[in-house]
Request: fold
Amino acid sequence: MGARRNTLFGLAALIAFVASGMLASAQEAPPAAGSPEIDYPGFVAMSDDVMAYRESRLVGLDTFNDMKAGEDTIILDTRSALAFQAGHIEGAINLNFSDFTDEKLAEIIPSKDTRILIYCNNNFVDDIEPIVLKRAPLALNIPTFINLYGYGYENIFELGDLVSTTDEGVNWVSTLQTP
Reply:
């Protein structure tokens, strides 16, 4: 009887051990679907954190122009190279949004303290090439601001006005060669 009791006791202990492991496994969060290098919840959280900050960094055209004349300031145009060549604010430098990496941003932005001015198609009423309006929630200013902030650049200001490329204060230029 003693051997049988020890066997039953051992069997009960084994079942309890296995069950506790199964319980612990069941309580762990399931693995996230998709690439671990794509963090949508992190992007949403960062977007929420940046929203009020971005609102405080919207500037009018006069302020934008005053700022662009300052030292340690760049105007960053993140549209395609072709759109940039077809027309941009004078003095802007181009880095396509899809090319953002730590390395490429560091190549064109001297330091994390550099003041960065941004604008996009949706700042212009013209709605013609190369500044065709995007759907408002998809305007490039928003992901550009969020991404710059996420890469550690916080001295960002965004053109908040709606203007025309023909406005004198815009200083719109084209670098396309005409025949």
Notes: The chain has a mean pLDDT of 85. DSSP finds six helices and seven strands in the chain.
